[in-house]
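Tutorial, part two.
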Amino acid sequence: MLQPLHDVFDKKAFPNLLVGLEKADDAAVYQLNSKQAIINTTDFFPPIVDDPYDFGAIAAANAMSDVYAMGGQVLFAVNLAAFPDDQDLDLLREILRGGADKVAEAGAVIAGGHTVNDKEPKYGLAVTGIIDPAVVKRKHGASPGDVLLLTKPLGVGVVTTALKNGRTSAEDVAFATANMKLLNRQAAEAALIVNAHAMTDVTGFGLLGHAYEMVNGTPVDFHFDFKAMPWTLGVHRYGEMGAFPGGMSHNRMYFYPHVTFGEDVPELIQQMLWTPETSGGLLIAVDPDSAESYSTLCPSAVVIGQVTMGSGHLFVT
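Running the prediction step on this input gives:
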């Protein structure tokens, strides 16, 4: 029998590993001293947009997002790339240039990497960040009465699927691309300033999957207002066309027992809330007295719900 990942090491033997495999979180955190801890994470995937530079920038922003979800800052990264040996290397150069520019925007640097031959291009980063161990943000920690904020619009998974089918407008793709390229750096810095109670980034499990990770095993529930959800341009139209990636049905099948929808929540909205996101925003739980301050520091943030006492369940009404 395959041994569970959280059982492969003895936590007591590694006391400086503050965040590891014992609970689902966004990145590993290893304490160096009383004031410094290292954050480490990695992510990579195939192209989701046509322009190779934009793909590189999106993949880099997505990989660095896990550092920001822990409240940290990026120090450096190394490239992880797969590329066919019969393709134009100028395409690979553009992918790597997009990634390098986005890392530079984060105030960090590409310090190396590794490339393999593969039939399908893939790109991402292994990222190293830093944080004061006293202020590490975790997925768990939301308190009853907290406000839930989301810092980027939802729906890029629908738009990129429609793009693959040749059914998008240039304006809608440009809007989705700009949001995917946007770093979560400002959102993370604002979370530290207002002392957010819990935080994660919204990616492959969609909003509801990642929200469930925040409440799983805790004495709280999340209540979302579907009418308050921010959406990327064109997403409702593409959703009505059926432009959903396969991950939507997988997320719904896995997380559905933990979510209750109100009778007036349209089926289309339910499907879009299950849909995977790429380089999505941060989902943050903050004290209600801090919500306005957070929105001032991060103007893209939208209040989409609240936290109540409960048993680890999600409600969408």
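The chain has a mean pLDDT of 95. In part three we will examine how such features are distributed along the chain.
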